[in-house]
């Protein structure tokens, strides 16, 4: 595609050089740039993303065919100068890939916790109903049962996002399901995506290192719902829906800012889709599903009250699309689970080991509360907090671990460039403030050793919760990223112990 065609998409633009140069793709990183690509110089975000303008020369030497920038870079290469490079990249990427989201019904999910599980539930329902599905989130991109990309970035940059959507379109996907983060919304990554339905799971403390305050965090998520179009149509295919958690106060704000038709779900407040008579066990969760389309019993193979909320959101999405209630129930009941979400590690041992992605105060609270419901022996919790991220949540999570656990092993998560010992001390402070005896917890910066210590300590009937990383197969350290999988480490520790305690 010629650069001119991309530049003409923008009303306010200044061009320099040959606008007839062919563009073969987009890049924001010189190390992955391929010859012929358009290098986009987005401005920096303190602590999160470097300004790309200083790398323009390096990009040209690496083979960039042209540049998009917000200021003069004084290089002998075709350049498109725009007031907002992020916006320009989103517009250009949509056009370059042929506006792929317009060829499917796209369902987006935002919220602090529950996005991945709810996305898998929605996918399971629509797949069971006979539709071709695509799923994009922090476990990669999946079309039907086939994983087509393993990039675990949640809400990709616009050019990668549109490329993934184009793969879904080329596979004739009917329903695309996609996780949408607050940072992705704030950075304009999903601009140009034509969402059919916007789903809100919940909002609790997280990402304050980026947003600063909970109000700004809520406003970032509000962008998702406010962008659902402002027109109405008699054509059912053009209708828009907002699926909101009635039990979360933030939903009141999202209802005000969205022009979409609102469907609510909840447990404690009256809603369009509700769960009553909830029964929690170690084998799964049962409840009575009460909806505007009827009532039916439901039995999930996943544990925890939080999964009831996730299921209700999925039900509301499917009902909005006219999927029969019995088909919805069957689709949810056959779902075995989601990678790294209360995932059982079974090597024949006589204690239970669960791996969960809980990495926020609310997520850890929910996971441990679920475990407490069916624990017969002691609860041993292994967790840490990410480095160079919201420091204020560390002591809070320490207190939560103390509240539910009989023993806690505080360890590293993804320490990044921060000293692991400082992170552990911050968490330990919460344990101390909760009045936890010294013999009820330990600090072990090496996550492998921490998991091993928990397994060594476990007795018959105990439950170990390894929280924070879930499905992740890596650990980000100061000197690089290494392979690390909590599930693999737990299996190895159990085998070393001898399978049975």
UniProtKB/TrEMBL annotation:
Domain Mur ligase central: 110-318
Statement: the UniProt record of this protein carries the keyword Ligase: yes
Ranges spanned by the short sequence motif Meso-diaminopimelate recognition motif, renumbered to the chain: 413-416
Binding-site positions, meso-2,6-diaminopimelate: 389, 413-416, 468, 472
Positions bound to ATP: 111-117
One GO term (biological process): regulation of cell shape
Main location: cytoplasm
Location of the Mur ligase C-terminal domain: 340-470
Cofactor: Mg(2+)
Residues with N6-carboxylysine modification: 221
Ligand binding (UDP-N-acetyl-alpha-D-muramoyl-L-alanyl-D-glutamate): 30, 181, 189
Keywords: ATP-binding, Cell cycle, Cell division, Cell shape, Cell wall biogenesis/degradation, Cytoplasm, Ligase, Magnesium, Nucleotide-binding, Peptidoglycan synthesis
Keyword Magnesium attributed: yes
EC code: 6.3.2.13
Reaction equation(s) it catalyzes: UDP-N-acetyl-alpha-D-muramoyl-L-alanyl-D-glutamate + meso-2,6-diaminopimelate + ATP = UDP-N-acetyl-alpha-D-muramoyl-L-alanyl-gamma-D-glutamyl-meso-2,6-diaminopimelate + ADP + phosphate + H(+)
Superkingdom of source: Bacteria
Single GO MF descriptor: ATP binding
Matches recorded under HAMAP family: MurE (MF_00208)
Family, similarity comment: Belongs to the MurCDEF family. MurE subfamily.
Annotated NCBIfam families: murE, PRK00139.1-4
Protein name listed in UniProt: UDP-N-acetylmuramoyl-L-alanyl-D-glutamate--2,6-diaminopimelate ligase
Organism this protein belongs to: Paenibacillus hemerocallicola
Top-level taxonomy: Bacteria, Bacillati, Bacillota, Bacilli, Bacillales
Protein's gene: murE
């Amino acid at each position: 595609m010629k650069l001119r065609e991309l530049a003409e998409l923008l009303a306010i633009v200044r061009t320099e050089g040959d606008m007839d140069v062919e563009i073969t793709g987009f890049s924001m990183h010189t190390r992955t740039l391929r010859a012929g690509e358009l290098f986009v110089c987005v401005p920096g975000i303190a602590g999160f993303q470097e300004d790309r303008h200083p790398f323009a020369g390096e990009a040209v030497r690496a083979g960039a065919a042209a540049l998009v920038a917000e200021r003069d870079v004084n290089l002998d290469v075709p350049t498109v100068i725009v007031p907002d490079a992020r916006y320009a990249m989103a517009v250009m990427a949509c056009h370059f890939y042929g506006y792929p989201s317009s060829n499917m019904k796209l369902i987006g999910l935002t919220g602090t916790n529950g996005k991945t599980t709810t996305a898998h539930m929605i996918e399971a329902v629509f797949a069971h109903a006979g539709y071709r599905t695509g799923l994009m989130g922090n476990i990669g991109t999946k079309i039907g049962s086939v994983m087509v990309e393993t990039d675990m970035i949640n809400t990709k940059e616009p050019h990668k996002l549109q490329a993934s959507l184009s793969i879904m379109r080329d596979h004739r996907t009917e329903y695309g399901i996609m996780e949408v983060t607050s940072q992705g919304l704030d950075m304009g990554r999903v601009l140009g995506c034509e969402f059919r339905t916007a789903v809100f799971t919940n909002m609790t403390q997280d990402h304050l290192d980026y947003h600063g305050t909970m109000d700004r965090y809520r406003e970032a998520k509000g962008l998702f719902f406010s962008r659902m179009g402002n027109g109405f149509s008699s054509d059912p295919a053009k209708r828009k829906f907002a699926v909101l958690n009635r039990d979360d106060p933030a939903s009141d704000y999202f209802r005000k800012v969205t022009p979409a038709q609102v469907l609510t779900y909840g447990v404690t407040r009256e809603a369009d889709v509700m769960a009553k008579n909830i029964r929690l066990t170690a084998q799964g969760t049962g409840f009575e599903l009460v909806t505007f389309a009827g009532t039916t019993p439901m039995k999930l193979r996943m544990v925890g009250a939080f999964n009831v909320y996730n299921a209700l959101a999925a039900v509301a999405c499917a009902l909005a699309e006219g999927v029969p209630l019995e088909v919805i129930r069957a689709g949810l009941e056959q779902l075995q689970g989601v990678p790294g979400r209360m995932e059982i590690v079974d090597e024949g041992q006589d204690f239970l080991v669960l791996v969960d992605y809980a990495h926020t105060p609310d997520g850890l609270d929910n996971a441990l509360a679920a475990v407490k419901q069916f624990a017969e022996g002691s609860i041993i919790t292994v967790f840490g907090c990410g480095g160079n991220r919201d420091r204020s949540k560390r002591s809070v999570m320490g207190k939560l671990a103390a509240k539910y656990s009989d023993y806690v092993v505080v360890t590293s998560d993804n320490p990044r460039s921060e000293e692991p010992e400082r992170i552990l001390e911050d968490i330990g402070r919460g344990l101390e403030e909760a009045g936890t005896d010294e013999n009820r917890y330990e600090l072990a910066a090496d996550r492998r050793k921490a998991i091993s210590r928990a397994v060594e300590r476990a007795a018959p009937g105990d439950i170990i919760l390894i929280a924070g990383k879930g499905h992740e197969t890596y650990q980000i350290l100061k000197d690089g990223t290494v392979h690390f999988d909590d599930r693999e480490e737990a299996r190895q520790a159990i085998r070393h112990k001898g399978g049975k305690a």
